[in-house]
Amino acid sequence: MKSILFLVLFLAQFCHAQVSIGHTTLTFNDPTRSGGFGSGGGAGRQIQTEIYYPATSTGTSTPVATGEFPIIVFGHGFAMNWDAYSNIWEHYVPRGYIMAFVRTESGLFPSPSHGDFGLDLKLVAQKMLDLQTTNALFQNHIYPKVGVMGHSMGGGASFLAAGNNTNIHALIGLAPAETNPSAIAVSPNVLVPSIVFSGSSDGVTPPAQHHIPMYEGLVTTCKSFVNITGGAHCYFANTNFNCDFGESTSSTGISISRAEQQNETYSILDPWLDYMLKDICASYDVFELYIANSPGIVGQTTCPAIPTVNLSQNGSILSTSTVGSSYQWFLNGIAIPGAIADFYELGPSPAGVYTVEVNFAFGCAVSPNINIVGLENPLLDLVTIYPNPCKEILTITTKSNEVMKAIFFNIQGQKIKSIELPNSTNIIDLTDLSPGIYWVQVGQWNHLFTQKCIIE
Fold this sequence. Notes:
456 residues, alpha/beta, Rossmann fold, Immunoglobulin-like, 3 domains, eleven-stranded mixed beta sheet, five-stranded antiparallel beta sheet, 26 strands, 33% strand
């Protein structure tokens, strides 16, 4: 089992490496405050943000790649700029994340405001989610989950951003530093899944005074602490003069290289992020495997055990007795549009393999398969959808005397387009939909014909 999980993770990393990285700069605005960095965001505090994202080709403002991607908002360390963390975006953007690097509070004089930096991270997290509907480049490409990550001062500010904030779904601290106002004091108000990384030889922010009190203060039901043996403070980032100089005067006993420390971090953080922000259920097993067995790592986690998802059938009703925060039913591995209750009524659905994904406050789990011999759909011979795959035009023909309706759902089961089919042959313009996989439902009332549609 362990070797299979390692192979799955390796293959996933190999596939992600083929994605191009796009870049754009957006300046957000907080009208209730002043200062900041940048211009063009409107009256008030300017919060210039460098955004890196999966793209169809490398470049500035190139089109976003097909799909929806969760967001990671990143806070830099003291006297460091966002470009010290190219190792972070070069690793995580190809893995299917949009990364937003906040550029405020990066100078030495005047001293940076930790409180404002935390508020900036908090605001940018919400503004990035809003791009799903407010920005042409990112429209329909935002997966509705956002994590806040930070290094050193940015790690402490991430705690400030996540305190009493349910709009943030995960917190990642890389050698987080105590701040003013206190990140340690606010940690009991952080209720989302959190993970803290620490280097045992960090003399800039000694773990006993910084990382460990923040971790111990967390009361979230799902928190993890990763101690990298012989690890440094600055090695979470690229080589940086200010950080490295400070470390040279304070840290002793560093026994691993920068590349080794980053690889140790990725081995733990990759599956953790995929589980918490992408809802990839199998990644939690990979995370537990790595945190327990990675060389050079001393880790602990309090995340509760994932419940077993039970699935049963009573006539035409499939149901689960596992209590979760939300549900999604799948047919042959594809999300069934609108099937988001703890039960699913088969009706005239085609035969296939059904599963249900149950989401909890800290992750998800998938039920065992149940194979259903379905009833033949009465609309099977009355509806034709072609070509498939298609590009900008889809044709739907019907042999019914009644006016039917076609409803388009994305792969997450969200309704995105609905049109009537008044004619026996209906030409559908799909230029308003991004390339990807969709479900098309055609019919009336409870008589529905469902087909997967690929738009190229």
